[in-house]
Write a structure and sequence with these properties.
Length: 521
């Protein structure tokens, strides 16, 4: 409203009204504005003072509450500490009281002991006096006896000792002889009883290994695929595995022949996978055989672990477990080595338990006694000594090492477990039908035949086939040409004639195969 009035007055002034009236109104408006401004400033100051006062009171209240809270916590803490101090003081007082009581008891006991010591001293003095009196009487009587007998005390004692010694020796000799005779008779009976009980309680079947495995097939149509065009598949399989594959008129069966059980197993599994897959050709055969060889290594470890679990043997070194698994594919005089070792372990454990010895150590030694036969490196040491060295290498117990090394009397037995393992080995091997020595000598002859050919330069692989009547040799085509292959066959046959004994004749076949391989990238 004031603005409108001001505008009107200004307009009047512009029309020629009085300038003084316009100035009056302007001053009046400025005064009102100044007063309004002062009032607003005063109002704001009052509000600020009230706000500051309120904040100050809130801060004071918060500080008081915090102080009271801290004071309460401090008082509570002090009260707890006072209570702890009072409790400890009470405990100390109780302990002091208990110590005082125990000291009084000790003083009473010391007084009683002093009294007993005095009584004992008096008794000892009385005994000493009586002893002196008895000694005087005894000496007097001895002197009287010496005069009557005409002998001194020492002479009489010596005669008496000699008489008693002779009598005791005579009786002791007779008694000792009776005891020895009875002990021998009893020991023989007891030993026979333990062995018989052990054999009866250990019922292990014997699996006599041979040189032939049978691979069963669903139909005879598969035989043609296995043979391949012009026999290339069967030749590739024989070259890769080192066994002889016999495909004849036997219905739904293929014969795998070879003296090495590992090679036969590799060939059998490879055939199984090839037949299942359906793709049978030389490249596929080599691929499958290589994979099967790796799988056999894994199976060997699994067999070793399963054997240890079955026998309850724990903590064997991984290499020893692998050797135990290899026993499954080895034979000793025609007897499966793993079955033989398992039986020896059970026999040794039973015999040790009957005799009150450590059955676990005996079982462990029985299982490991022939590990020297499965060591992959050729050694000139006897298998028992080699097995002992391997057991020492893998931190086996000294008694186990001695039992392994002494089970064929190569070293002296220093533990009771050693003769038990030796006896168990003899029991396992001497059962009717358990072993065939002809088989062992036959396998040894075939291995020697292969080793003889491998010593010639250029020979990559060598396999004894057809029960040792054929020696099949694979040579390096880059280093051996056709003429050298022919000469190599002649040289090997001549060396076999000179160095080996064998029935009939041995066919030496040298195979030189040239492969050209390139890659298209």
């Amino acid at each position: 409203m004031a603005d409108v009035l001001f505008i009107i007055l200004a307009a009047l002034a512009g029309l020629g009204g009085g300038a003084a009236l316009a100035g009056f109104f302007i001053k009046n408006k400025n005064a009102k504005l100044e007063e309004e401004t002062k009032e607003k400033v005063k109002s704001m100051l009052r509000e600020a003072e009230l706000t500051a006062e309120t904040i100050k009171k809130d801060r004071i209240l918060e500080a008081k509450e915090k102080f009271l809270k801290m004071k309460a916590e401090f008082d509570e803490d002090m009260n707890n500490k006072k209570n702890i101090i009072i409790t400890n003081e009470n405990k100390v007082k109780q302990l002091q009281s208990q110590v005082a009581k125990e000291q009084e008891v000790l003083k009473r006991k010391e007084a009683e002991l002093d009294s007993k010591k005095e009584n004992l001293s008096a008794q000892l003095h009385a005994v000493q006096v009586k002893k002196e009196e008895l000694d005087k009487i005894t000496n007097q009587r001895i002197a009287d006896l010496e005069k009557i007998a005409g002998l001194t005390r020492e002479e009489a004692k010596e005669q008496l000792v000699n008489m008693l010694t002779e009598e005791a020796q005579s009786k002791a000799s007779s008694h000792i002889k009776d005891i020895l005779d009875e002990a021998k008779l009893t020991a023989t009976k007891q030993a026979k009883k333990i062995v018989l009980d052990t054999i009866q309680r250990t019922a292990t079947e014997h699996a006599v290994e041979n040189c032939v495995s049978v691979f069963n097939i669903e139909s005879d149509d598969i035989k043609g695929k296995i043979i391949g065009r012009e026999g290339r598949n069967i030749r590739a399989l024989e070259a890769a595995t080192g066994v002889e594959i016999v495909v004849d008129d036997t219905p739904e069966a293929i014969i795998i022949s070879g003296f090495d059980p590992v090679r036969r197993e590799i060939a059998r599994l490879s055939l199984h996978r090839l037949v299942q897959d359906g793709r049978i050709h030389p490249a596929r055969i080599e691929e499958v055989v290589a994979k099967t060889e790796k799988n056999i290594e894994e199976e060997i470890v699994e067999i070793g672990e399963r054997t240890c679990i079955d026998l309850g043997i724990h903590g064997l070194h991984p290499e020893l477990i692998k050797m135990v698994g290899r026993m499954r594919f080895r034979s000793s005089y025609g007897q499966n080595l793993l079955q033989h070792s398992r039986e020896v372990a059970k026999l040794a454990s039973t015999m040790a338990a009957e005799m009150g010895l450590n059955a676990k150590l005996a079982k462990r030694a029985g299982l490991l006694h022939d590990i020297g036969k499965v060591w992959h490196e050729e050694q000139e040491l006897p298998h028992a000594i080699l097995g002992m060295e391997l057991a020492k290498r893998y931190k086996e117990h000294p008694e186990i090492c001695n039992a392994i090394g002494a089970h064929h009397d190569e070293i002296e037995m220093t533990s009771m477990i050693s003769p038990i393992v030796q006896a168990s080995d003899a029991i396992s091997g001497s059962r009717p039908g358990a072993r065939r020595e002809i088989m062992d000598s036959y396998v040894k002859r075939l291995k020697e035949l292969e080793e003889l050919a491998l010593n010639f330069d250029g020979v990559n692989k060598c396999f004894a086939m057809q029960a040792g009547r054929e020696l099949r040799i694979l040579v390096d085509a880059d280093n051996v040409d056709d003429q050298k292959a022919s000469k190599l066959s002649f040289d090997i046959s001549q060396k076999i004639e000179k160095e080996m004994q064998y029935p009939g004749q041995i066919k030496v076949t040298v195979i030189r195969e040239m492969r050209a391989v390139n890659y298209a990238r």
